[in-house]
Design brief:
By secondary structure, the protein is α/β, with parallel strands linked by helices. The chain has 21 helices and 28 strands. A hairpin with a 7-residue loop joins β12 and β13.
């Protein structure tokens, strides 16, 4: 990893940027560090619109944070209503491109009307503040409308990515005790229909808390509708149009005045155990930090067309398709389909079509497109682009270089943004007009982000030493809890190092103070920028009747960064291992979601274990990353196991 090559911001870019120089960045950073309450308090007062002003900035009793107590606020009002009083009323809020090529443009005013209509419909079906809604939809504007309508009504939403299985959907609905599910008949993915409503029906066989299912018609295929539980969105829209009393409610624009700590959403993410955690985010602090990072990191200007290619089912989509950009009054592009369908230039075609100015994607997507060659982007006019972003995993120098040269034509800075579901907003990233870039480094912490690198005992490490990345001070968009499990929140994030947030990432800081994220140090994998838990996949595999034991490790992968490799021992029986390998991959796909399918399954007669019976995943990791096993294996119970696995690996390669 080279720290040496730097790219200074183009002077044209700096001169117009929100933050124009390293000195300006340092001044902001110092002000936030010395007086965080004044810093965040001033920003909250100016960047957000309050129904009632807050009384103070923060009540901090680690790990419990209450930001902006005493105020009253609404996230949807900040994302939509307040813009109607300005020229943004007729500005496009969402430019949507469907996979089959259909498209729609919704102005801020359109969005306002659609949200109020949907709120009236939900109200009529007796949904109200304090309840939980699970949203399981394709990437269509109604997904954003559903999210914002929940926020308007004070219903805590949990978006479940449409690629998750009905099993994963079920456990999330149950964990939340959700009363409402908002879904669609299906969505499009690479020309095929993903049948969402069928998955909902299956999940709901075991979810007694759900009273209402609202279904949007997207694909028009046949679905089962249960009387008294399932309702078509369009039928309720029609009913609203023909009922003056309902129309009047929709036009009144009623909005809940909520506590700044009102639970805005829960997003499930993988942790170190088999059970995903419901990360809870609340209202005002989350909104503030997602909006301010639009200016700091994406240098948002009024005429920008901002495209974040993530799915709203992940935190990136929550923060940088919905809440951040809309609070900041931006125009966002939203796309339903895949980057490579119908051809490898789909992204570049959309950039050209809508004159996208800021483009934010994952290293996995970039690597997959690099492989297809320059002819795809070169066939399009990409001159509208002025800033590029990367998120989700470390970006390797070769991918960075291609992104910079072939997509950005050496004109556009690249913001490599480090953050997590738990941090809510970007924490370490360049302010692109202010600081030189180093490919592969997320550069410097943003103002208000106070980080350290520490060793296992919590000692602070100096430059050029690898250690654990911790965050020392509370920040407005920090996760507030694990839904229903405060003990897990405390233990997972706040116990390892006293009064500090433990990120789970290893990092190193160089002599310029730049941060280099080295990856997870726990049992969490990063496949295509998706967070997967080794334990979750292992427990899915051992559910299968043929499997005795399973150990899952990440192996390096050229495109997806990491890939899932599972070592499996079988129960007694006459198994056809070839067929079984396929079956187990499908099994995991069904239990968790297709993106969690192991790329490789290796059958073995034993797993390497310590004398106390713990599986030595470290050895398996070494086995899939290198050709030999190094380090201490003296605690290994049966040395021959690892030799057998190693020789099997060798013969597979031959
Ligand atoms: O390991 C880090 C990696 O992704 C993890 C967070 O995953 P998730 O909660 O799914 O959120 C992803 C999108 C924000 C982190 O612990 N990660 C995220 N961004 C970067 C990164 N690793 C290196 N560089 C990044 N820019």
């Amino acid at each position: 990893m080279s720290d040496s090559k730097t790219y200074a911001p183009p002077s044209e870019f700096s001169s117009r940027a929100h933050v124009k120089s390293t000195e300006e960045y340092r001044a902001l950073y110092e002000r936030a560090k010395t007086n965080p309450e004044a810093f965040w308090g001033d920003l909250a007062a100016t960047e957000l619109t309050w129904f009632r002003p807050f009384l103070k900035t923060l009540d901090w009793d680690p790990p419990s944070a209450k930001w902006f107590p005493g105020g009253k606020i609404n996230a949807c009002y900040n994302c939509v209503d307040r813009h109607l009083r300005t020229e943004r009323r007729t500005k496009p809020a969402i430019i949507w491109e469907g996979e089959p090529g259909d498209s729609r443009v919704l102005t801020y005013e359109d969005l306002y009307k659609l949200i109020n209509r949907f709120a009236t419909i939900l109200m009529r079906l007796k949904s109200k503040t304090g309840e939980r809604a699970v949203i399981y939809m394709p990437m269509i504007p109604e997904l954003a409308i559903a999210v914002l309508t929940c926020a308007r009504m004070g219903i805590t939403h949990s978006v479940v990515f449409g690629g998750f299985s009905s099993e994963a959907l079920k456990t999330r609905i149950q964990d939340l005790g959700a009363s409402l599910v908002i879904t669609a008949d299906g969505g499009w993915r690479r020309g095929k229909e993903v049948r969402l409503k069928d998955a909902v029906d299956k999940a709901l066989e075991e979810c007694p808390s759900v009273r209402t299912v609202m279904v949007y018609k997207r694909t028009g295929s046949d679905v089962n509708m249960m009387t008294g539980r399932d309702y078509w969105w369009h039928e309720h829209e029609e009913n609203l149009d023909s009922t003056p009393a309902l129309k009047a409610i929709a036009e009144s624009g009623e909005v809940q005045h909520l506590d700044p700590e009102h639970p805005l959403f829960v997003l499930y993410t993988s942790g170190t155990t088999g059970k995903p955690k419901g990360i809870l985010h609340t209202t005002a602090g989350y909104l503030l930090q997602t909006a301010i990072t639009m200016k700091w990191v994406f240098d948002l200007r009024e005429d920008d067309i901002f495209w974040c290619t993530a799915d709203i089912g992940w935190v990136t989509g929550h923060s940088y398709i919905v809440y951040g950009p809309l609070t900041a009054g931006a125009t966002v592009v939203m796309y339903e389909g895949a980057p490579d369908y119908p051809a490898y230039d789909r992204f570049w075609q959309i950039v050209e079509k809508y004159r996208v100015t800021i483009f934010y994607t994952s290293p996995t997507a970039i690597r997959a497109l690099v492989r297809q060659g320059d002819k795809w982007p070169n066939a399009h006019d990409l001159s509208s682009l002025r800033l590029l972003g990367s998120v989700g995993e470390p970006i390797n120098p070769a991918a960075w270089d291609w992104y910079y040269r072939v997509i950005g034509k050496e004109r556009c800075p690249i913001v490599d943004t480090w953050w997590q579901t738990e941090t809510g907003a970007i924490m370490i990233a360049p302010m692109p007009g202010a600081m030189p870039l180093k490919p592969g480094s997320a550069t410097l912490p943003l103002p208000g982000t106070i980080v350290d690198i520490v060793d296992t005992n919590g000692n602070v490490l100096g430059n050029n030493q690898e250690g654990f990345l911790v965050i020392r001070e509370p920040w407005p968009s920090m996760a507030r809890n694990v839904w229903g499990d405060p003990k897990r929140f405390q233990e997972q994030y706040w116990s390892r190092f006293p009064n500090s947030y433990f990120t789970g990432d290893a990092a190193r800081r160089d002599d310029d103070g730049y941060y280099w994220i080295l990856g997870r140090i726990d049992d969490v994998m990063n496949v295509s920028g998706h967070r997967l838990s080794t334990m979750e996949i292992e427990s899915s595999l051992v559910h299968h009747p043929a499997v005795a034991e399973a150990a899952v490790v990440a192996k390096p992968h050229e495109i997806t960064g990491q890939a899932v490799c599972a070592f499996v021992t079988l129960k007694q029986g006459d198994w056809n291992v070839e067929a079984l390998g396929q079956e187990l991959r499908q099994w995991v796909g069904r239990e968790i979601g297709p993106f969690a399918r192991p790329e490789e399954i290796r059958f073995t007669d034993a797993l390497p274990k310590t004398r106390s019976g713990k599986i030595m995943r470290r050895l398996l990791r070494e086995l899939v990353t290198s050709h030999g096993v190094t380090g201490d294996i003296t605690t290994l119970e049966d040395m021959s196991v690892i030799q057998r696995l190693a020789s099997q690996h060798q013969s597979d390669e031959d």
